[in-house]
Structures
1.
Amino acid sequence: MVKNLKAIHAKHDKVIGNTDRFPETESGKLVTKKQLTRMWTIASKNNWDKKMVHKAIGEMFALESTKELSQDQFYQLIQMIQGQIITNIDQMVLT
């Protein structure tokens, strides 16, 4: 599983040009229901709809469902939603 996550991270880094990594200790654990509720609240406050969130997780992590997010991916997605990660709009359009 860790090998697969590294491949996903490499794809993510290529899309947004990010070389910083969250600590890998949590990367194997999936998000909790409470974290998903928090994510949807943050998304809503930042004017992200369901379609935008699912487009982002598909492009960033090659996932189809928010329930498939690892802890590491969850925190990266939250940063992106909050505008703390700047994406290359030519490579990833969220609308």
Note: The CA atoms of residues 34 and 40 lie 10 Å apart.
2.
Amino acid sequence: MKLLITILTLGLNFTLLANQITHSTYDLRHQEKITQAISNKCNYFGNFFEESKTINTIKIDQGITDYQFTTVIKIVSTNGSRHAIAHSEYLDQYDTNLKTWGVYYITDIECQ
């Protein structure tokens, strides 16, 4: 039983690490959305590296702040390397699924 729990825990940890973007300071929820969107749209798989990013701050009334992100990602695999550009947003609203504040959306993925 301990072996089964250890294997499941290692598998979960590997899955979480697979969705991380090297050199990224983004929240893990944001990184996961970006890697999933790139994998789904571009069919790129491998190690993800953040090469550059632009963050635009959008001030809404009454202290609410949203953000728009443009992130250049390099994906390295055994077949070589490719790039993708992720356009995403952070909205200062309540996430009813995760029971926390802040929701990340992917607005566009450019496969290169």
Note: Residues 87 and 108 are 5 Å apart (CA to CA).
3.
Amino acid sequence: MAIHSQKTQVGESAPGLVYDPDPDGVRLHVSADKAVYLGNGNMTAANGYLLTENTKLDLFLAPNEELYALSTEGRATVYVLATMNQ
């Protein structure tokens, strides 16, 4: 199993790509230093999934899916730990 970690800054103007697609799918552990909304590249604060500050979320991205985040509180840092079967 391969493990990959990263942090990404996202803002208020448009969703920022948090994790690139993986052809085999990937399990993610996500947290942020401010509240952010998660979803696809077209999501907004009105339809995104709210991840509150310092909350952890585990999710599985299906093959070739991308994960985006958007902040409504200025710039936010999103932390991602990915575990991949390789």
Note: The radius of gyration is 12 Å.
4.
Amino acid sequence: MIENLLFSRFLELQNLLLKAKWEETRETYIQSAFVGWQMGAAGDKTFGSYLSHLGLSDELPQSVESQKKGDNTEVLARMGIVAKKVEKEE
């Protein structure tokens, strides 16, 4: 089934799965961070700044952001496909 997908559709589905997995993991981490925050692990920080310090703010991970911009070299590298650089002829 996956062999019949267009590569662009494959990347869209992969991006969707990455987002869903990140949100699921992030929610678990936020719940754990809340317990730590209540126990005083953050010192005088607010819960929002504590989340930012831990990297759990509303920003998406770098790999998802790079795919949004159309930079798929990281994805290709993980798949074992080496992207060739095209040099402009002058």
Note: The CA atoms of residues 52 and 58 lie 8 Å apart.
